[in-house]
Amino acid sequence: MSDEPSGGLRGLGKPWVRDFRGINRSPLDVVERGLARARAPVAQMPGSGSAVDATAAANLATAQRVPWLRAVEQARRWLPKAEREWKGFVKALEVGKPLPDKVTAALRRDLGWINDERNNHSLPPIPALIRELSREIDHSLPVRYSPTRMESPNSQPSRRRFIRATPLVHDDGQSRGLQLFPDFYLGNNERRATTVIHEILHTWDGRKLEDGKAHPFSWDWADQYVTDKEGHILDDVSKPAGFMHIFGQDPASIAALIRDLGR
């Protein structure tokens, strides 16, 4: 699904997780009933059925091109440091040394990680993801700009939400390229860089790791949500503890983790 901006609804009571019917349930209730992944239609402009017909970044207007290239550069800068931080965490875990505070704090916040055997044996393959991202995030990434704002399927009368970006081709595991909307340019460069990573992950359904090994998750990069009790989606907030099996395959959560490790 697309990455969407929304404002500050943080702190409005205990965050809940939204299930596939849009019903808000407490974390315990979700665990007991099971959680299906939320999907929403992909917003596409006419003629955007493949990455081939995307304009090159060089052909974007300056007002769109410069922030786009800066976002791409920022996303790339995060990757090497994020990989080093992650490998240090895994090494400490393996040898029984104290775990680095930066990584554990990011894991708790972004994925709902708990330091127990179950969680530590099902960690997302961050180095493999970073290798894939390193191949895709550069100035050759196809990009198209749509000047018309696109309202999100998750928008509500009391809380309108607008799409920042979508993949040009959604969930086919092979295609590259993003479609940007005006709301992509709201906020700061870190927000745009996080959106770039988020949306690239959406194109990876069905993709296998380069070593061919099984992935502990399903590569089903569907968006997951934390909401308040009124059903408003809370953006970039701490995830409920014990939900890494859900948020460990959520594009926004993985993108936030890479950002927080790469800073």
Compact summary:
The protein is 37% helix and 6% strand. The protein has 8 helices and 6 strands, in the order ββαααααβββαβαα.
Could you walk me through the main structural features you see in this protein, from its secondary elements to its overall organization?
By secondary structure, the protein is mainly α. It is 37% helix and 6% strand. The chain contains eight helices and six strands; from the N terminus they run E-E-H-H-H-H-H-E-E-E-H-E-H-H. It has helices at residues 27-33, 62-95, 101-111, 117-120, 126-136, 189-201, 244-247, 251-262, and strands spanning 16-18, 24-25, 143-145, 165-167, 178-180, 226-227. A three-stranded antiparallel sheet has the order 2-1-6. Helix 2 (62-95) runs antiparallel to helix 5 and helix 3 packs antiparallel against helix 8. The longest helix has 34 residues, at 62-95. The radius of gyration is 18 Å and the shape is globular. The protein starts with 15 loop residues before the first strand and ends with a helix.
- First and last CA, distance: 26 Å
**Strand order in the sheet with the most strands:** 2-1-6
Bulk shape: globular
**Can you tell me the residue ranges where pLDDT is under 50 for at least 5 consecutive residues?**
5-15, 18-54, 214-218
Content of β-strand: 5-15%
Q: How confident overall, as mean pLDDT?
A: 78
Characterize the main sheet: 3 strands, antiparallel
Q: State the helical fraction.
A: 25-40%
Radius of gyration equals 18 Å
Structural class: mainly alpha
SSE run? EEHHHHHEEEHEHH
Strand elements, count: 6
